[in-house]
Design a protein that fits this description.
- The protein has about 325 residues and is an alpha+beta fold.
- The chain has one domain (about 1-295): Gcn5-related N-acetyltransferase (GNAT) (Aminopeptidase).
- It has helices at about 1-10, 15-25, 45-60, 75-85, 145-160, 175-195, 245-260, and strands spanning about 30-35, 85-95, 95-110, 125-135, 165-175, 200-210, 215, 220-225, 235-240, 265-270, 275-280, 285, 290-295.
- α3 packs across α4 (about 75-85).
- The protein is globular and about 55 Å long.
């Protein structure tokens, strides 16, 4: 009861993310989880500018998968995100050096009559997007990604005590089994470790077209559910195949697997010159735990090439 009163007194999500970061950090001797905007170490502008560039390079160096799966943020994009959204970061110190171990940006959107996010265009809906959680490759420290999921999902569950009417959304390229496994693994970790009622369901997908041509693979939209009974859904396997028209073939596979769930007529909006169409499922009971992705090479041949990294110079005396 005391904890619930504390959470109700918290005025914004930054405070709740910070609370969860401190709770998880207590499990480690040398790893710190923080909200970048609230960490005293990075309030000096020189330190902040350095870590903003480091975050961009962290994505550049550690995202080595298919180029279609993620848009690597440059330093300008990270800075813009810093000004608008909480950035959750795991790091450890080695003298004056900061080693980033994991990071994510939790974006918040509010659809109004004048401004609707085309990728989840539910009218009058407020929602957080939990996507792009990335941990350092081969760091030797396990479960950083799972702990970031723990921090984010636990904080947002508590935030519902203050602002009940919002969704928590996850999106992933339909072939990106690594990201999908990360999302369902994060929810399962919470169910198993602290008996939280958190799971994810696929609720729809969207396409991006330019002049009727798909410009990227169809993308799953899933929603994290809180305080609801976990129901084992039917197993669904998306067994993709290469074809001369790859993106169209992926879309046809999605439609074939999801047609029994009732695919809505599609909500169209523009993102620049591209048309985004969001298809909502009438039956939204597809649990991520019961989804299997078999890319069958449809993700190959488009490996992302990291940018050249800058020469680091640190002088904050």
């Amino acid at each position: 009861m005391m904890k619930e009163k504390f959470f109700r007194r918290c005025m914004n999500s930054y405070q709740l993310f910070t609370y969860e970061c401190e709770r998880v950090s207590a499990r480690y001797d040398d790893v710190k989880f923080c909200v970048l905007q609230c960490e005293s170490k990075f309030q000096n502008m020189d330190h902040l500018a350095e870590v903003i560039m480091d975050i961009s390079e962290f994505y550049n160096e550690n995202w080595l998968g298919n180029a279609d799966y993620i848009h690597i943020p440059d330093a300008k994009t990270v800075w813009e995100n810093y000004l608008k959204y909480p950035i959750i970061m795991a790091y450890r110190e080695d003298g004056d050096e900061i080693e980033i171990l994991g990071v994510t940006t939790i974006k918040f959107f509010q659809n109004t009559h004048g401004q609707v996010n085309p990728y989840y265009p539910i009218p009058d809906k407020k929602y957080f997007e939990v996507t792009g959680i990335l941990a350092k490759q081969n760091s030797g420290i396990k479960n950083i990604g799972k702990h970031i999921y723990e921090i984010v999902l636990e904080a947002l569950k508590k935030y519902k005590l203050i602002l009940p009417d919002f969704d928590v959304i996850f999106v992933a390229d339909c072939r990106n089994y690594m990201s999908i496994n990360g999302a369902k693994g994060g929810a399962k970790y919470l169910r198993d470790s602290i008996e939280e009622k958190i799971f994810g369901n696929i609720i729809g997908f969207y396409t991006l077209k330019n002049q009727d041509e798909l410009v990227e693979a169809p993308t799953f939209v899933a929603k994290f559910c809180f305080d609801e009974n976990y129901v084992q859904s039917e197993e669904i396997t998306f067994d993709f195949q290469n074809s001369p028209h790859l993106f169209q073939g992926l879309l046809e596979n999605l439609i074939a697997n999801l047609s029994s769930k009732g695919i809505g007529p599609g909500i169209k909006n523009y993102d620049g010159n591209d048309v985004v169409t969001y298809y909502e499922l009438e039956n939204q009971s597809i649990n991520l735990d019961n989804v299997t992705i078999i890319p069958n090479g449809t993700e190959l041949g488009n490996d992302r090439i990291p940018w050249p990294t800058r020469k680091r110079v640190r002088n904050h005396e």
